[in-house]
Amino acid sequence: MRSKARVILSRALVAAATLMILCLLVGLAFWMKMSIPELGQDTHSSSIRPPVSRTEKETRKPHNPEVGLASWYSLNGKTASGEPMHPNDMTAAHRSLPLGTHVWVQNLESGRSVDVRINDRGPFAKNRVIDLSKSAAERLGITESGTATVILRTTD
Fold it and tell me: Residue 6: inside a domain, yes or no?
């Protein structure tokens, strides 16, 4: 009888240890998913970041000029910064520049330029470097074509 009790007890211990290891693995997998964003994750719907503080602006590294394709968009709703999207504002979306950064954008085809403030994340098309508000796109002369090759530099 004691031998049978030992077997039952050892099986219970093995089951408890297995359950404990499984819980640890699930917790580790959850923690890793929360702390390391996956490639291609939709950052547009992530939590809203507060405006850039003065000290963050002062310690920001200079941004090298970027050349690429610009497009424009006009959506209803909120931007990644939490403010409403206004097509008449001189704003833009960029993948990596801090929200609140001011950027000088020049259309390389027409020579027109505009200053915009980054308040959103995007563009989500792989071959584009910046999404401009409708008003900024009009000033650059790209509303008809939809896209243009631009150079952009941070101004602050």
Answer: yes
